[in-house]
Amino acid sequence: MKKRQKAKQQPAVVTEKKTPKNFFTPAVWLKVCIVIQFILLAWQFYPAPSTNGDDAKYFILGTAISELKGYKEIHLPKEPVESQYPIIFPAMLGVMQFFSGTFMLPKILMAGMGVLITLMCFYLGREHFRRLLIPFLFLVATASLMAEFSVILMSEVPYLLLTILALYVYQKSLKAPENKLLFCGAILLSVLPTNCRTVGLAFTGAFILSNIIAKKYRYAVLHFILFVLITIVYKSMTSWDNPYVMQLFQRNSYDPEMGYVTFSEMAGRVLANIKKYTFLIVGKSIVPQPDTAAVFWQGTISSACAFCILVGGLRLFFTPLRIVTIYLFFYFGIMFMWQEQWSSERFLVGIIPFLLIAFLYGLDLILRLFPVGNETILKKFVALIRSPEPAEPKKAAVRAVWIAACIIILLNVRYQFNTAAGKMKQSPDWRNFNSCADWVRLNTPRDAVVMSRKAELFYLRAKRKGLTYPFTHDIDKVIDVMKKEKVKYIVFDNFFWTATTARYLYPVIKSYPDQFNVVYAVKNPDFYVLEFKGR
Amino acid sequence: MKSNLLKNNGLFFLLCFFIWTQVIYLQHGSYRYFGVPLPSELKNMNIASEFNQKNVVAKAISELYKSLKDEKRPVERGNIFQNMGVSYYDLSQITRNMTFLDSAEAYYKQSIDIIPDNARFYYNLGRLNTERLNHGVAKDCYEKAAHLKPDYILALHNLALLNYFEMRDSREAKKLLLKVLSIEQNAPACNYVLGAIFEEERDYDKAIYHYTNEVTVFYNFIRGKTPIPVTRTTLEYALTHSHLKLVELYSSQQKNRDLARDNLDAYLKFEQAPGAREAAIKLFNKSWAQKYDSGK
Questions:
Q1: How far, in Å, CA of A394 to CA of A387, rounded?
Q2: How confident is chain A (535 residues) per 10-residue block, as mean pLDDT?
Q3: Quick one: B282 exposed, middle or buried, by C-beta within 10 A (0-12, 13-18, 19+)?
Q4: CB within 8 A of B129, min separation 6: which ones?
């Protein structure tokens, strides 16, 4: 007690002299985070492409660019121009493939980007939320969802890095309005997220709106002009089709003939997605849980996280990071309109650090509400939301935030250690799928076209062009597609994760058995390569 | 330098990244993406034997039920009904439980109600009725299929065999079989039946021509060129009986001992039943003074 009193009596100059002796500065914690994140990523790293198919497609687009074939889907029989995926990430992969055609180098660089996100979060957070910076950094560095996407070739991590970089430079530019270089950098970087992932339209919207609100019109106008210019040039060089916009309004993109949603169907979809994200997905993104976890706990954890994020998002609106609140609002707006079958944690990877900071802000505020005292809870809430960084933080609230952060961090680390072992293992269905691809590569003509459930992955392994069968029960339509695309082989699979082949392809084979010959087969589960006669 | 590395976040990141990369290369540097295929586990690459398995059909049926639950569009529902009919028909063949034919028929009829102009749907219903020995109904179905799609080889083929074996209408069968062969010369069993028809008409040259063609069709089947799905048993039946007929015709009509003997050799290669083998040899020996000797 005496020591404390002495410390309070000491003049400020003495305190400043003592500060450098504190070894555990935020910069040191950052380095600890970087080391931890690298260890976790090394634990989970595997050199093969993941089985989701999208990273295979990105890799193929990168190959097309590196081989100077243009921005084309070279795995498809007619090599159409790619119109769905924005070009930035495939271009990055294309550059990497100039040096190495394997998956290793791009995957290593992806992991590097994952850690760079933590570094950039440090720089962004240092400016705006010093007090919550360390738990925030640990949460980002150990976020299992981000780690998962840092070891596969998907555009989420580069997108996130570009978003944070754009925000950082933008904030720097706001602080130094006379610096033209920073201004140009901020504008240039602000259009990159949209050209990395189409959902970056949320960032563009947030950038324009937040600048209009802040009366920074030159940022809004220049961003808009550059965005339109890039879109026109890019679309003129590739295609004006925008499958993502179409998909947003389609009933089911796997079956485009189902048509487009009506207004009431869209409202239903939005409500269903709000429910799904609130009671399941948001929680799983922050606190990873196995699918077998009890629905009650999943719902409780998720809704608590979602509530904290909502409160934190509101609180961020009254800080210089207002753009983050608007960005999250637009981002979730798009997510809620997206087809329900695709709603998953994956779509939150692109905003995970923003969710985490909103979560911490929200949790901090909620904890500060108690004990309520003489004021009403609403009055206290409004007061706290408008002054996000009080001069004297409540120790109990700070401790509680730290405890919550520690629990989440430990759960994330545990989850990563538990799931890492499974990533290197090849399940029997994928082993047999790869075996079919190996057989096709070694036993069929180079120009043979193969129809399979995962055409992109099959192309990488079999080095044969191919396509996925149409998801229709009209057998004659499937046969027509086979004939039109000059399909020579089909892979009849028994994947554990999908049964679309049994649903759509089995009736085709049974209705036209004269058109098919079995040329290769592996069992448990049964996979067949069938030759299609095409008569 | 050391202090710079520790103080500067960027340099620290680069150093860690460099070390991390080395670790990753040490751990996974030997990884090879491309592999060699596992040994194929099928000796007889036959669709029918592989896909006519209860678990395969059951999985397809369960998936089709799921589709039906979600599907609202009438035409697509019609297609699903048809595919369910096909699956139940297969299930009846696999399990030999003919009650599944009732389900198949109900689904076929529902699909025809929704899509009345698809030849394949009538063909499938025709097959089902053939199975039930409702030859009149089967004939109507095949005729409807052939009407909707005049070059529908499967329907023409089945209609021809139905006319010959069940309706005893050789004239109509002959007309249809010739049409099938004009579309697909490797159509199985057609030449055998045509040979029999021409033999009945005492046109032995044509009969020999078609029986010989049937033999060629079988060897084309072995090379994977058969356009019509028939079982190997059916094909072997047509082959052995074509050989036997050729032994008979070369012995009695064209008097060519060498060809008769060659065909007998080929017949005996496929025919395992002792009684049938003995009868074939007796048939040969009856026509030729020099008896059959398997050693020559």
A1: 14
A2: 47 47 82 96 91 91 94 93 91 91 92 96 88 93 95 95 96 93 95 94 96 95 96 86 79 77 92 94 90 86 95 91 95 93 91 95 87 76 72 74 93 89 82 96 95 96 95 92 95 93 91 85 92 83
A3: exposed
A4: B135, B137, B138, B141
Comparing CA positions, the residue from A381, A263, A265, A281 lying closest to residue A332 is A281
- Rounded distance between C-alpha atoms, residue B145 and residue B141, angstroms: 6
SS3 category, A354: helix
Nearest to A507 among B28, B29, B83 (CB): B83
Any chain A CB within 8 A of the CB of B42?
A: yes
Backbone angles phi, psi at A487, to 5 degrees: -70, 135
Which helix (H) or strand (E) covers residue B172, if one does? helix B170-183
The answer to whether the Cβ–Cβ distance between B40 and A520 falls below 8 Å is yes
Structure tokens that stand for B164 in this block = 């010959």
Residues of A in contact with B154 (CB under 8 A): 514
pLDDT, tens digit (0-9, with 9 covering 90-100), for B78-121 = 999 999 999 999 999 889 888 999 999 999 999 999 999 999 99
Instruction: With CB atoms and an 8 Å threshold, state whether B79 touches A472.
Output: yes
Distance CA A102, CA A83 (A): 25
Largest CA-CA distance found in chain A, in angstroms, rounded: 96
> A371, B259, B23, A194: which is closest to B284 by C-alpha?
B259
**Amino acid occupying residue A501:** T
Tell me if A412 sits within 8 A of A142, measured CB to CB: yes
A38 min Cα distance to partner chain B (Å): 7
Residue B74 tokens, joined = 């009438």
> How far is CA B66 from each of CA A265, A472, A476, A503, B70, rounded to the nearest angstrom?
21, 13, 21, 9, 7
| Whole-number Å distance between alpha carbons of A197 and A159 | 7
pTM tops 0.80, yes or no: yes
Cα atoms in the Cβ-side hemisphere of radius 13 Å centred on A437: 24
Neighbours of B219 (CB within 10 A): 10
State the DSSP string of A439-494: HHHHHS-TT-EEE-SSHHHHHHHH---EEPPPS-S-HHHHHHHHHHTTEEEEEE--
Which of B122, B123, B132 has its CA nearest to residue B101? B132
Cα angle for residues A474, A477, A478 (degrees, 5° grid): 90
Cα angle: A282, vertex A286, A288; to 5 degrees: 100
Residue B63 touches chain A, beta carbons under 8 Å:
yes
A250-283 burial string, b = 16+ CB within 10 Å, else e?
bbbbebbebeebeeeeeeebbeebeebbbbbbbb
User: What are the two backbone dihedrals, phi and then psi, of residue A88, each rounded to the nearest 5 degrees?
Assistant: -60, -50
The first and second tokens of residue A420, run together, are 């890492």
d(CA A465, CA A457): 10
Instruction: Please state, in angstroms and as integers, the Cα–Cα distance from residue A344 to each residue in A28, A294, A348, B78, following that order.
Output: 35, 18, 8, 33
What count of other Cβ atoms lies within 10 Å of the Cβ of residue A296? 8
The residue type of A204 is T
- Give the β-pairing of A516-522 and A466-467: unpaired
Return residues 1-30 of A near B (CB < 8 Å).
27, 30
Asked if A521 and B50 come within 8 Å (Cβ–Cβ), the reply is yes
For residues A114-145, one letter each, b for 16 or more C-beta atoms within 10 angstroms of the residue's C-beta and e for the rest, the string is: bbbbbbbbbebbeebbebbbbbbbbbbbbbbb
